[in-house]
Amino acid sequence: MSESCLDIPTPPIFRLPLELRQQIYSHLLPKQPISHPLPSVGITSVSHKPPTSNLLSTHPQLTAEILDHFYSISSWKLIFSHAFNFFRVDPELRNLERSQILNRIRKVEVVFFCDILLLKEYPSFGLESFCAEIRRRATRACEVLNKAPCLRNVTVSWIDTTLTGGWDEKATILHPLRSLADVAERPITLCIGELNGPPDVDREKFVKALRDVLGESGHLDMGQGDAAVEGPSRLRMLAFDVRQERQKIGNYRRLASCRGCSGYELEVERNGSERVVGSESAV
Q1: Fewer CB atoms < 10 Å away: N or C end of the chain?
Q2: What is the pLDDT of residue 215?
């Protein structure tokens, strides 16, 4: 071990039990949704306030514990809709696919959003094409999420403002979720999140459709997942205005810093650029 490592004093906080330290970390990482936490990555929002650069620069062990706690409590949101991410950041989620953040996320909320504004603006755009495009986006997202080795919980939310009926066609949008349940070595539990739609689509009908998709191998938790209840207007704003909450994260030198499963540490700078630090041999 190098002298520089030996010279780092152990902070007094480590005299406390881990459970008490985690309570302190929860106080430092409150539930405060931040939209577009990584400017170059197609994550719509994260449920908890990320740790600041100052907090991550105090002590190596403290950094490791804080990051581990942050990823254990935070949920990362992706929205699937025809209009969302159209000419926007990371439309095919390629930056997310390359990001080391993908190695650490454990909980994700996916929102299927059938937006009436699109059908009003393009009345010739039929329901079948509408659903096919959302299904394509969901398929791509599930391909990326299947590369997240630590992912264990996926909350599924459904927002439908179209009032068009056609539930049998719309239910096919859920089919890509089956791929998340097919990875035996990494069991994922799916939870029901926010359900907001026409009267003919109640919770029972939605649960049945999701069970049909998952099959016998799927794990479906009937309890409420980590969904943040947000109306259609809020979802549209989240998708289209990537600057709206940038002021909340502007004072972070590094929005996130983590050591992925490959042993590399990723720093996401305030301007959105990413820098990889260390190597596979890094301790």
Answers
A1: N
A2: 85
